[in-house]
Amino acid sequence: MKLEGEYIFDGPREDVWELVRDPDVLATALPGTQSLDQVGENEYEGVMNVRIGPVAGVFSGRIVVSDEVPPETCTLTVEGKGKPGFINGTGYVNLIDQGDGTTLMKYDGEIQIGGRLASVGQRLLDTTSKSMIRQGLETLNKALQARIAVKTGSGEVEYKPPSESEFAAAVAKDMAGEALSSSRTKWIAIAVVIVIVIVALILINIGGG
Amino acid sequence: MTKKYIGKRIKRSEDPRLLTGEALFVDDVEIHGMLHAAFLRSDYAHAYLRSVDVSAAQAREGVVAVFTAETMGDDWQPGPPLVSPPPTVEDVIFHSRTQVPLVKDKVRHVGEPIAIVIAENRYIAEDAVDDIMVDLEPLDAVVDIEKAMQPDSPLVHDDLDSNLAAHIEQEKGDYAAIREGADLIIKRRIVIDRGAAVAMENRGVVAQWDAKSQRLTVWDTTQAPIAIRNGLAARLDLSEHQVRVIAPFIGGAFGPKMMMFYPEEMLIPWVSIKLDRPVKWIEDRYENFYATTQERRQVHDAEMALTLDGRILGVSDVFLHDSGAYDPYGLTLPLNTQCHMMGPYDVANYYSESKVVFTNKTIVTPVRGAGRPQGIFIVERLLDLAAKELGIDPVEIRKRNLIPPDAFPYEHKIIDQAFAPLIFDSGNYKPVLEKAADMIGYDQFVKDEQPRLRAEGRHVGIGIVPFIETTGVGPYEGARVTVEASGKINVATGVGTQGQGHFTSFAQIVADQLGVDVRDVHLVTGDTAEFHWGTGTFASRGSVVAANAINASAKLVREKILALASKVLESPEDELELADGVIRVADIPRISISLGELAMLANPLRGAVEPGTEPGLEATAYFGPQYGAIAFGTHAMIVEVDPQTMMIEIKRYVAVEDCGTVINPLIVDGQIHGGVSLGIGNSYYEKLVFDENGQLLNASLMDYLIPTAAEVPRIEIGHEETRSPLNPLGSKGVGEAGAIPVPALFAQAMENALPEYDLEILEAPLSPNRLFELLREKEREL
Asked: Does one domain contain both B405 and B464?
């Protein structure tokens, strides 16, 4: 399964890079993450709750970051497994300075999903994963705004990460919108988990740089 | 014998029990101290098994034992093949690779069991499955059967040079020669996809080892209890008489419950002996999608040679057949396909080559239809395309090619699924085709109704497809009929029953032979303690092989009754009649004796029994047909399509069946209803979708669509009777017939409904999505 997409952060590339080097921020952007720990120079292990339609369970996974060119690109390799099945994938992330103070994040990847996640969650995988990515990235963007505001002293911008239920509600709302107006995104096909993983990877990777 | 019951629409005697929850199913078996099993199954389709750590699972409270291939020790052995390769055909390649109880070195399909957990209850067992740490090294999966045959494909079985499981060619006449002179060649690639049987009841096994009596009792959702008993005895090193296998009421089987042996079928009894405790395992629906066998994926390169007036000169076909990860069922399916690719037609020249391919998918064994729907789909699609090309009406082109009634027995000079010559024993095809056309009002529809509806902008199409079904193959079945002192009759036979109405139809035969009320005939099926010779319920053979064995034993009992009654009543046998449970002198009805009294006289408590006589009014007999009986029929449908939504409505459905002597038309109707329902699923709904890693993407009834009451139309049924000369009852099978012609019929009707698109349907099943794609492709072309 292929995964592809892009997102514009309202901030300079270095700040985005710095933001995502912080695993704690990443964990808050993806509610359900129980832990995310660095276990080697470029290696992380994490545990996350995932729910896709009728399939729910705890995933434990390992992320390896390679081919890093800070603050531009990196490659992420992910292996996760849990009761709902497994995910293996690699993703490539690229941060592009747009010259107007914003940063374009492009990512694409290839993932394999197996077990119940693939066989029972299939029909919800695409929309749920798109939505989770979007919600996750938007949360990160808010975190970015808060940091920039503090840095520039231009007043307080409150950043409060969403709770797991708030996140789920936003995803559900987003999915309903997705169903009503298709082709809002140009992502081809996405697995939820990969999404999570990718975001996590990006953040971590950048952090690890 | 007077035919008081045979041929009558007798209501099924088993239904009150089934409908009021009184019938015993495997999951109803509750035994004190019973343990429960759950399996750890692979999430990967293809992977090396590096290690399994069961220590955490074993430590969980309530877990009694955990077994892996390693801890099974010498008891770990691959399952025996069910069907051996044919000895009579030259140059057949067959690589036998059978399923294993638990994965030892390599996983070959998603859902293959790696470990079995035995616990105090199922909840604990399932939780403990999650405690097991398994290290799998994933390999590229073999999924697509065409790619599987390429030289660079990964191998499902590392010890073979390729993924070729079997290769068989069959030839009749000389197709290559006739092709030269043909007026028209229709050549197409046609694909039939994989589906599931989806019985309402999943599989289940309960085993109880009784150490004190040294006996093993197994309740199993199997179609073949006797074969399971014999296999278990051999594998567990027990005498066959120490093992009793009971196939109680079963909620549908449709073929996959005939796969001897499933890993679970061997493991649960083995564990029961090992732990000296009763053990139960009930498959859940999710497991069923991976662990229960499936069928139908084939890719055909087919062609038909014809004359300008639409006569078939020959058929040639090369196809790949997906076997899944193992091939325990031998060549049954590809042989069935080969035997149906000439349909009911007089085809003088035929060439067929089949390559059976291993893939990293669930094992393939027969599902109701069993290779036959594919063969019929090929020949009917080619014929429809030829009819279009030649401008001949679809019904007319079929009439021109049907085997004429005076050509029977019609020898095809190829071998069938039983490795016997394919001979069509009897048939009269044209009246059945005409009756179906008549019932659906074919001419009137085409001339008046369809043009009128089309003028209204509606897309309504008609289809009509004749077909044959090889049924009633050997080797044999048997039965024992006993008259009890109450005057009631007990009948025991070895075949299992999964909803076919055996308790009623078999009783009808005995009631007619013995002149008793049908309600006084009690049937026992599928219990090896009651009868232990026979093979099983499969291949549409119950009403042929088992029914004739029952008929033969009832006849022997009738002879015993007459002989004894003749003495008791002091009247010659030919002056006696059996009716209403008594034997009487036909002309002097007051001279009579009841069957019960006679049964007591046949089993005296005092006095001397004459040498050479047997006690009781009881007999056992067997029946084995020389070769299979060929049933046939024609189905027709009118379908309306909405080209906006791609939704369909089957407006009329007609099925005319000829299955020889009909024992009970009500039961035959029910078989057809069920078969057609599956056929509709195979036509427009039921498709198992795999990704490139061998992951099944629709493993739930939320996404795998089976027809419901809303999709199955009212079915109008016509019966014709052409007796089979191969058995005394003259019967033929009908269990699979309903499913066989439906995909071919549906394709024809859909093309007819959408004339402006000039569709060619070369695949089954379609689906609303797939139809949408086909129509968009056509729109782009136009």
From this structure: yes
Domains of chain A plus CATH, in order, are 2-208 (3.30.530.20)
Chain segment B474-494, per-residue pLDDT in tens: 889 999 999 999 999 999 999
At which of B623, B644, B664 does a domain end? B623
Residue B436, token pair as written in the block: 């179906």
B130 part of contact set with chain A, CB < 8 Å: yes
In this structure, are B538 and B551 located in the same domain? yes
Residue A176 CB-density burial (10 A; 0-12 exposed, 13-18 middle, 19+ buried)? exposed
H helix runs in B285-354, sequence order: 285-291, 332-340
Task: Give B108-147 pLDDT, tens digit per residue.
Answer: 999 999 999 999 999 999 999 999 999 999 999 999 999 9
The per-residue pLDDT of chain A, averaged, comes to 75
Partners of residue B702 in chain A, C-beta under 8 Å: 54, 120, 123
Same domain, B134 and B229: yes
B695 and A119 within 8 Å at the Cβ level: the answer is: yes
CA B156 to chain CA mean position, Å: 27
In 3D, which of B416, B401, B380 has the Cα closest to residue B764? B380
What ipTM score was computed for the predicted complex, to two decimals?
0.74
In a domain, B195, yes or no: no
**Chain B closest-CA separation from residue A107 CA (Å):** 22
Domain final residue pick, B291, B314, B340: B291
How far apart, in whole angstroms, are the C-alpha atoms of residue A34 and residue A60?
Answer: 10
A114·B286 Cβ contact <8 A: no
Q: What is the pLDDT of residues B196-237, one digit of tens each?
A: 999 999 999 999 999 999 999 999 999 999 999 999 999 999
Question: Whole domain around residue B612: which residue ranges?
Answer: 15-22+474-623
Identify all chain B residues contacting A86, using CB atoms and an 8 Å cutoff.
43-44
Neighbours of B413 (CB within 10 A): 13
C-alpha distance from A118 to closest chain B C-alpha (Å): 6
- Please report, for the domain that includes residue B573, its CATH number: 3.30.365.10
Q: Cα(A152)–Cα(B143) distance, rounded to whole angstroms?
A: 57
> Which DSSP helix (H) or strand (E) runs through B550?
helix B547-569
Per-residue pLDDT reduced to its tens digit, A26-44 = 777 766 778 888 888 888 8
- CA proximity to B359, closest of B578, B140, B577, B648: B140
